[in-house]
Amino acid sequence: MLDTTAELVAEVGVERTTIDEIASRSGVAKTTIYRHFPSKQVLVVEAVHACTHIPAVTDTGSLRDDLISCFSGMTKASYEGRLGDMMLSLMDAAQRDPELGRLVRAQAEQRRRFATTVIERSVERGELPDDVDVDLLVTMLSGPLVYTKLVRRQRVTEELVAAVVDSVLACYRAPVAPESAANA
Amino acid sequence: MLDTTAELVAEVGVERTTIDEIASRSGVAKTTIYRHFPSKQVLVVEAVHACTHIPAVTDTGSLRDDLISCFSGMTKASYEGRLGDMMLSLMDAAQRDPELGRLVRAQAEQRRRFATTVIERSVERGELPDDVDVDLLVTMLSGPLVYTKLVRRQRVTEELVAAVVDSVLACYRAPVAPESAANA
DNA sequence: GTGAATCGCTACTATGCCGTAGCGTTCTTG
DNA sequence: CAAGAACGCTACGGCATAGTAGCGATTCAC
Q1: pLDDT > 70 in chain A, percent
Q2: Among B143, B173, B178, whose Cβ lies nearest the Cβ of A143?
Q3: Does the residue A112 lie in any domain?
Q4: Smallest Cα–Cα separation from B70: which of B81, B82, B58, B83?
Q5: Staple partner for A143: which of A18, A49, A148, B143, CB 3.0–4.6 Å?
Q6: Both A115 and A168 in a single domain?
Q7: Residue B92 resides in a domain
Q8: Are residues B82 and B159 in the same domain?
Q9: A116 in the same domain as A30
Q10: CATH number, domain at A115?
Q11: Residues A9 and A93 in one domain
């Protein structure tokens, strides 16, 4: 039932998803749906919740490996499969529906926190300078992946994740500080 | 009339935009709207077209300046104002509506081509190595901006554009090649 | 001025969807 | 096996919306 809802949202979006269609597809009577969920809004929120699972955070001691593992996990969990197909419509609906808004924002926050944790751990190890802009770094890492998924509508491959991580990390490993290089 | 349509799409999204509401807001009778546009779909496409304007490409001779100018222009043209507010809903609707799909894809392509041009010009000048992955570079630049706009729902400031450009360019100016640094 | 095109207004059809009522059936539980 | 809970089905009421018809008023061009 929640599964069918998610399937429909992925196919036609939140707005075009109707209770009647959920009922006929899942082989459940419409009245039964209303016996469990007071409204379509709640049903959608529950359906999203149901297909959300949080990837584990690894700690290999290497920033590069941790980041790749972290973003690969996120990709599998959020950008692939049903949740990936629902994403755009969910984000759009979240602009108007406060409940969905909270849900989507919470998920984005959580994904950000994972990456932030990995980076801060690396700073403590001395792998990155103390004054590194963690917020910018997370944006530089997440951005290209989201962009590839939502705007280019291409699969986020392991190779892309590695390329993005390496590209972002490259300047922090070089002897020249980014600030001075930027003004060259 | 097209203006009111764009305004409504920005406010409530493509799906929730109704002809009646457009009529009453623009002070135009519904019948008059149908005398100009055969359907809501066409009206929305025209409205999007109407508020799309292409920023000029600069050629200062400096990759950094050109990129900042390029992405600042794109930001103003696409991420701010009405088009920025319409973006998510348009992208979602574009998944199902072939006409909108073409439109959105064309705009994304065009934005990409701007950046690609700037970068290729820089490669010809010898500022960047010949074997640079232009495609990845454009993704690394566009991604964080789109991510900031769509996912974080924050304004894309001039400072952010500069920070992203500098961050991406940093590794290409450093003496150590990114590949060897990544494996360090 | 006069004819033609355009516009505004009200009303209308048709459709789709939300959410509910009522009733008979099935399944569970003790 | 018996009682109660859960389910399926059909049929609603109510609302919103896409598009259309018809007619009178307005504007515009010549």
Answers
A1: 94
A2: B143
A3: yes
A4: B58
A5: B143
A6: yes
A7: yes
A8: yes
A9: no
A10: 1.10.357.10
A11: no
* Contact with chain B for residue A106, Cβ under 8 A: no
Is position A131 within any domain?
yes
Which chain A positions have a beta carbon within 8 Å of B170's beta carbon? 170-171, 174, 176, 178, 181-182
CA distance B131 to B165: 19
Residue B140 makes CB contacts below 8 A (sequence gap 6+) with: A140, A144, A164, A167, A168, B168
* Domain tally, chain B: 2
Start-to-end C-alpha separation, chain B: 59
Let me know whether A63 and A109 are in one domain.
yes
Task: Tell me the CA end-to-end span of chain A in Å, nearest whole number.
Answer: 59
CB-based contact, B159 to chain A, within 8 Å:
no
Distance from CA of A170 to the nearest CA of B (A): 5
Whether any strand C atom is under 7 angstroms from the Cβ of B35: the reply reads yes
Contact of B175 with chain A, judged by CB distance below 8 Å, is answered with yes
Same domain, A75 and A162: yes
Residue pLDDT, tens place only, B30-66:
999 999 999 999 999 999 999 998 888 899 989 999 9
Cβ of A133 within 8 Å of Cβ of B163? The answer is yes
Number of A–B residue contacts, CB under 8 Å? 146
Q: Which of B50, B180, A96 is nearest to A104 (CA)?
A: A96
Enumerate the residues of chain B whose CB falls inside 8 A of the CB of residue A181. Answer: 166, 169-170, 173-174
Read off the pLDDT of each residue in B16-24 and give the average, rounded to a whole number: 96
How far, in Å, is the CA of B130 from the C1' of nucleotide D13? 70
Q: Confidence class of residue B175 from pLDDT cuts 50, 70 and 90? A: very low
The reply to whether A25 has its C-beta less than 7 Å from any atom of strand D is no
Tell whether B70 and B157 lie within a shared domain: yes
| pLDDT above 50: residue B182 | no
Q: Which residue has the tokens 């439109």?
A: B103
- Chain-chain contact of B184 with A173 (C-beta, under 8 angstroms): yes
**Containing domain of residue A25, as a range?**
2-49
Q: What is the CATH number of the domain that holds A24?
A: 1.10.10.60
